[in-house]
């Protein structure tokens, strides 16, 4: 009785929903968290668990994983599902389950469901932001770069290669190994650039004459700032340049 009370306390106060279902996928128990996760009373959730899944392709992975657990009697890796609650909300959940085996036969599946909708939404927002940044980066008419204090490119966009006369970013990155000696027509200009970065952490409209791939020269205007770690150590310079 004491063990049962402890188990009930754990289930009642957990953030996850616990469940059991038969080898035929019929839910026989759903914990009270169904009210928050599935928008219904636990008793209303009893039925075939596939009734809650959407047509999202990722759900097939979950269906196949559960079927393997039933057929083999072996625990499968956790998986994610997109569900439709009784109120029509689309949510994402993390599912962790195990087969209950007796005399070599799977008699039930027991598991837990955790709502990860907020995390998935945050991931999607980040993905969209990264895609937006990538589109700006790739299609900008200005050069967008990151360079080390030693003068090595870390990142460069296609406009950088175009301005400097290279056929591709890959060619630029492999050809220019030291901006200090290969880039600036006046070598002292690079030292002045680094000095300003050290003293004020940025430059605006810093003009320099630089070499292109074919040896010709072009004037560029740089807007750059220094990026440092938590200890204040200089990591790299980043910003834009235009001819």
What report would you give on this structure?
The chain is an alpha+beta fold and 243 residues long. It is built from 9 helices and 10 strands. It has helices spanning 2-13, 34-37, 42-45, 59-72, 117-139, 158-163, 169-175, 179-182, 187-200; strands spanning 17-21, 27-30, 79-84, 90-102, 105-115, 143-147, 153-156, 202-211, 217-228, 234-242. A 5-stranded antiparallel beta sheet has the order 2-1-5-4-3. A 5-stranded antiparallel beta sheet has the order 7-6-10-9-8. A hairpin with a 5-residue loop joins strand 9 (217-228) and strand 10 (234-242). The protein is elongated. The relative contact order is 0.09.
What distinguishing features does this structure have?
9 helices; elongated; five-stranded antiparallel β-sheet; 10 strands; 243 residues; alpha+beta; single chain
Outline:
A five-stranded antiparallel beta sheet has the order 2-1-5-4-3. A five-stranded antiparallel beta sheet has the order 7-6-10-9-8.
Tell me the β content.
25-35%
Structural class by sheet pairing and helices:
alpha+beta
Strand ordering within the main sheet: 2-1-5-4-3
**Count of alpha and pi helical runs:** 9
In sequence order, what are the helices and strands, one letter per element? HEEHHHEEEHEEHHHHEEE
The low-confidence runs, each spanning 5 or more residues with pLDDT under 50, are: none
Number of strands: 10
Helix content: 25-40%
Q: Roughly what is the average pLDDT, rounded to an integer?
A: 92
State the shape. Answer: elongated
Q: Note the gap between the termini.
A: 79 Å
Rg, nearest Å? 29 Å
Report the sheet with the most strands, covering strand number, pairing sense and barrel closure. Answer: 5 strands, antiparallel
């Amino acid at each position: 009785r004491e063990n049962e009370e402890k188990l009930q306390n754990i289930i009642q106060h957990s953030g996850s929903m616990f469940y059991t279902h038969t080898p035929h996928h019929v839910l026989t128990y759903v914990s009270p968290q169904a009210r928050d996760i599935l928008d219904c009373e636990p008793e209303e959730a009893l039925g075939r668990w596939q009734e809650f899944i959407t047509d999202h392709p990722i759900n097939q992975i979950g269906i196949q994983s559960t079927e393997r657990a039933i057929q083999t009697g072996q625990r499968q890796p956790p998986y994610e599902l997109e569900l439709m609650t009784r109120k029509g909300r689309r949510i994402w959940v993390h599912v962790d389950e195990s087969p209950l085996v007796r005399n070599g036969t799977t008699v039930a599946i027991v598991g837990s469901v955790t709502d990860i909708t907020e995390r998935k939404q945050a991931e999607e927002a980040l993905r969209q932001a990264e895609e937006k940044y990538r589109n700006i980066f790739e299609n900008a008419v200005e050069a967008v770069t990151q360079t080390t204090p030693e003068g090595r490119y870390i990142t460069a966009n296609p406009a950088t290669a175009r301005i400097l006369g290279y056929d591709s970013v890959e060619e630029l990155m492999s050809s220019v190994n030291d901006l200090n000696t290969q880039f600036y027509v006046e070598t002292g200009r690079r030292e002045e650039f680094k000095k300003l970065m050290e003293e004020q952490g940025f430059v605006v409209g810093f003009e320099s004459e630089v070499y292109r791939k074919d040896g010709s020269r072009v004037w560029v205007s740089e807007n750059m700032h220094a990026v440092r770690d938590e200890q204040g150590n200089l990591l790299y310079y980043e910003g834009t340049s235009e001819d």
